[in-house]
Amino acid sequence: MAQRVVKTTYLLGLLFLVAALVYFFASNWPELGRLMKVGIGAGFMILFYGMSATVFRHHFLSKWLLIFGAITFGICIALIGQVYNSHADSFLLFFIWFIPTAMFAMFTRISFLSIFSFGLLQLTCWFYYFPSSYQIERGEWPSFFILLLFAVINGIISFLGRPSIVSVLAYMAMHSWLFVIFIQGISTDQFHFWPYVYAFIFVLFLIYVRKQPYFICTVLFTGMFGVVQYFRFVERHFGGNWYIFGLVLAAIIVYIGIYALRWMKKRSNGKVEKIFFVAFQVIVTGVASIIVVGSILQLLSFWFNVFSPYWLFSISVFLFVVPGLLWKRWNDVVRYTLLAIGYILGAFSVTEVSFIVITVYIAVLFIVSWRMSAGVRTMTNMAVSLYFDMMMLDEWSDIRFTLFTVFVFYGIIYWMAKHTYERLVFLVFSFATLLLLTSADLVVVDWAYVVWNILFLGFVALVLFFRTNEKEQSIAWLSIFLFLTLKYYEWVWSLLHKSVTLAIVGVCLLIVASVVQKRKSISLSFHKQKWLPLFVIIMLQVAFITYVTFDKEQHLQYGQRIKLQLEPVDPRSLIQGDYVRLQYEISTIEGMNEWGKAQVILRKDETGVHRFVGVYSLNGKPRNSTMYQEGDVLVNGHIYGNTIIYGIETYFVPEKTGGEIQRHARFAYVRVSKTGDALLEKVSER
Question: Where are the transmembrane segments (predicted)?
Fold first, then answer.
């Protein structure tokens, strides 16, 4: 017990320190110069690595100091982007971060680094296709092959890698990117052939994929694909009467689900965790319920111009909830589907029906379900809390009291429940409701706001220190991570003040852990690590940071200064803080529809602003080179259709100053190197 408390306290201290580091640099404190900021970031990275290799070499903290050192390297790369105004959340940031992290994972076999590097790879893919700092229009085939490439990369990782959690995650990511192709095709009216190919791919996977986690994932995405296609087909080709066939389709899905579940249990020979069967039941129930609920609502709308909410409430209770609760001999999938349909339909009418009726209904549901199976009890308690939540908001409109009441309800169910998965479900809901209470975007900032935040941290500590179930502890760690993320985006107090607070808390936790460890004489040994390959990677990281910083400084000092006209907007980066997103006058070229690397000609006008003259070269081949005159400036960029990205589309600013800059900035001053690379120096009103 004492050893686990000490380990947890150490980890919380390190986590808060790294979060403080992120908050501090994201605040973009103007009193610190460029080199000082990069130096501090690199210094913390070296400190983490050094302590991991020396002071705590055979200590439990050695592994985690190495991990936080790898995380700090990414912070340094983001920091360089901030101080030299590179892309916010650029795919290059995450790709550069991914390479050494993946190498660390390969040499150390630390599962956290493997999962973290995999996440960085997905962020690389995401921000390559969906950049945050600029907008581009891709053609149909380039878009398709880029997304397909992401799916193939993840498929290779999944099928060629050794069996692990990363292999399962890669398989899920592969299906996610295939599904993105499907959704992109619908939203942009492209890839019209893809639904047919996608359906064929699903058939192949369902036939040949054998391992349970992969099979469950395939079924999940097959269900999502089927639901979307079903409603698209009905909406496009048929009127309201066709929705009655949705009820038949849902029955077919449930029947197939029952058969597939029995087949899976026979094939598994009892070697598969129950969670996969539960997940499969949830998928079948969810897909069938969505189709039935949509069909019933559409049918009622088609048959009646106006229908009483009591009709909908009565249908939900007597046709679905009562049979689902009372007919215990039915298959579990059938019961869960009936209950899900009834509870969802009831949610559409709960605020329109008499308060007394709903109160009695909720009380009866709670009492009747308490002696039933864990699955029925879990679904019913979820419905009870949802109805109660909706009623309270409708009657009193007090979101804080409502959330706190629901949290207490979830907490009671969590402590009283004996079934493992039931406890996990309500622990997740407890953390979720309490996390909403800590948000300044939902509640008023007063003394109660402070109480909610303290209560959340206390609940996290309670689970981390006194609960032994690993799944419950994982939920608590995820919740504390979400809490720190929420505080990062919260407007109520500055990032700098948050950073100082987190740093103080982190240091105090480390001191407490160290004192307890010494007094209790607790040994926290760790296996011996081969440091030579890790040392090479660390030296390469330091060399990369040094080189990039030196190159940027040389660029700012010796590059040719030009003035460009712009139009700014104002978002916030994931880890780099506030920035102004810039749209230049030279960013759009009318009449162009090209792709690749471009070099454009800029010429100073009588006002001192450099204007676009023409494209000097495209993909290394001369385009309008004869237009170049003495005094003109050549600038590199990437062209996407008629849009050119120069790499100077973001300008990082101190926290909460972006709005002021957005209102007044009209021009950007840019340094252009001899090779044509642009580096944003500042923005100005004139």
Answer: 9-26, 38-57, 64-84, 90-107, 112-129, 141-161, 168-187, 193-209, 214-231, 243-263, 275-304, 310-327, 339-370, 399-417, 424-444, 450-468, 499-516, 531-550
